[in-house]
Amino acid sequence: MSTETPVISFSDRRGLVGYLADLWRRREFAWHLAMGNMRGRHASTSLGLLWWVLDPLMLGGIFLLVFGVILQTRRGDPNYIGFILSGLFAFFYTRRTMLSGAMAIRNNARMVATQRFPRLLLPIAAVVEGGIAFLFSLIPFFIIAGSVHGDWPGVFTVWLIPTFLLHTVFNMGLSLLVAQLVIPFRDIENVMNYLARVWMYMSPVVYSLEDRLSHASDKVGAILYDVLRFNPLVPILGLYRHALLGGQHICSEAGVCTQTYPLDPTHVWIGLGWAAGIVVVGVVTFVRMEDKIPRYLA
Amino acid sequence: MTDQSAASGAPAREESTFDAFGQPLERKRPIEETPAIVAEGLCIAFRPFMEKRRSIRRHGLRVLKRESEPVVALDDVSLTVRRGEALGIIGSNGAGKSTLLRVLCGALSPDSGTVTVYANSPPTLLALGLGFNRSLSGRRNIYLGGLASGLRKARIDEIFDDIVAYSELGTAIERPVDTYSSGMFARLAFSVAIQSRPEILLLDEAMTVGDEAFRKKSGDSMRGLLEEAGTIVMVSHGLGRLKAFCDRIAWLDKGRFMDVGNPEEITDRYRAHIGVAKPEVEDED
Description:
The complex is a heterodimer.
Chain A: E1 7-9, H1 15-25, H2 27-41, H3 51-70, H4 80-107, H5 109-114, H6 121-149, H7 160-182, H8 187-201, H9 209-214, H10 219-228, H11 233-245, E2 249-251, E3 257-259, H12 265-289, H13 293-297
Antiparallel strand pairs in A: 2-3
Chain B: H1 4-8, E1 35-46, H2 56-65, E2 71-82, E3 86-90, H3 97-104, E4 112-118, E5 124-125, H4 138-148, H5 153-167, H6 182-195, E6 200-204, H7 205-208, H8 212-217, H9 219-228, E7 231-235, H10 239-245, E8 248-253, E9 256-261, H11 263-274
Parallel strand pairs in B: 3-7, 3-8, 5-6, 6-7
Antiparallel strand pairs in B: 1-2, 1-4, 8-9
């Protein structure tokens, strides 16, 4: 009789492939966890899911007021609205996954303590949540940027799909790295918000790196430009700008028009490199330290 | 519990009747000689810095000093759980009982030793209301709870109606869970746990059953869960309860496996060991 009974051994080293298969088997869990968190966040509000559109709308409003109207960061560009909003919403996807990835394990501490499951699902759920929130924010983007500057979707918008995928893979790796670092070093949780803020201002979110720093005459500006170009968000935001603002053209007096945000192939390669690199490092290190996670929560 | 006296006065455990919650319990599965779980040489040591407050500075100091003495939670524990039996685990605080359950369900991996499970699914450590999001409806929480405890969505679709029926929540299933009374919440949580029909159920009373109100209201449901489960490993502070319910009792002391066997015999020796003479003390919780 017992010969027919399946045998489960916990001490088997599953290996990466087995682990990923496990992960795939439990994918519904990550999806429902993310959707549950999203629904739960605004469950008791009267506007409900509309907040997923209103939140980015208000965020965009503040940034437009401060950087567009008051500081006039993009004096030369007639379309600062599209520029700021595209950068801002894309950045907030990364920001959101980074911050919620940091909390992913601890918010589900009881689950981690009592259940056997691939813990990688928790930071993945955080990424899913951030990704959906980002897709929601594209609605106000097209409404505002479209109605003000005519940045409606066009053929170029197809680039949004690979860009979004690349960005998601990058965020996944980032979320995994943050999630595992925060467990032994809880101090990181405290600096996370500031890191996110610094990162935003070091990225071409409200200003363009080229415009501001590439012609810098002083030494500090030149060094800064060389350093900031390595920021993984430079290629990612560059790709978004093409996908979202590709319809814009600058016309010379002779009548020759060129795209304001042409597709930059180096962005594709550098972006791919970053995304692949960080997700591989993230997954491998996470799986390796996964067994230790419950011990920190005990 | 108020009705504990009935438990200690009913030692007819050959029929596996038990009264934890006022009524006798009927076990549905026979005990077999084949094992359900075989644990061999389990060792777990926690590093004490995990219990202390963490900061970068302390980490730095620790790296330099290396003075941390590991706290041994399990020290070479070997144990076989037979299929269909109810095995109780006793031991004073810090004996490693909860840690052992967490190792047996696979949530915590031991420093050394192996756990082999002979079943279709890994043992379930009962954690009521796990994965629930209180601001969502009962319906959504059935899915969240089921998925969190390892069920697939298709399976939850199948048993969904049974869960709702068992919980007797009726139309309240569409209401947010935070509008539920504690009794309603308990019924929902138990329904999910019962209808997912764990083959091997691990039960840590201190961990699963919350406050007194919840415990009172969950009496019947707990009985249903225990009757349904095939194999049970349970940790409780109520000695009389364990003695009456369990077929065998294992005794842990400071992470060491002391003995396993007849409930009467083990509890007597345990009592002598900790120096408690009167059996009245046994259900102090």
